Amino acid sequence: xxxxxxxxxxxxxxxxxxxxxxxxxxxxxxxxxxxxxxxxxxxxxxxxxxxxxxxxxxxxxxxxxxxxxxxxxxxxxxxxxxxxxxxxxxxxxxxxxxxxxxxxxxxxxxxxxxxxxxxxxxxxxxxxxxxxxxxxxxxxxxxxxxxxxxxxxxxxxxxxxxxxxxxxxxxxxx
Length: 174
Description:
By secondary structure, the chain is α+β, with helices and mostly antiparallel strands. It has two domains: about 5-55; about 75-165, no CATH class. The chain is about 35% helix and about 25% strand. Strands 1-2-3-4-5 form a five-stranded mixed sheet, with helices on one face. Strand 2 (about 80-85), helix 3 (about 95-105) and strand 3 form a beta-alpha-beta unit. The chain is elongated.
């Protein structure tokens, strides 16, 4: 069975249950049932639960998809102004650029500290090359610098190290 991940569905059903418990509580007070005060607590809890689900639905999972980006793994993040992501060695410069834009959007957070006073988050993209068996060397293919404070930063600076693509395995360069 597949459950929806959209919080609006859960919020709607929780709101229905809250209204149903409210009506049931009103009926309990009219007929002076003994458990009517317990229903006040249940109705209050359902109201809090509905409010929480509504708040989560407002933007907890806002994620933009950048066309052309590839999957990456977060290798290093100091929680402040530097991060490193890793991709497979089968990548081209346009995919590097799209992936850097994707990572700059994904890793943005208002909670990041500015340790160096520059106000920029720097994300470097790397892959691993294996020049000989048993030896792995990180190869940095690009980096992006964006604001630590502005969510929709218009001045994102993407730098692609095009000279490094010659070091990738030749059958993978396209």
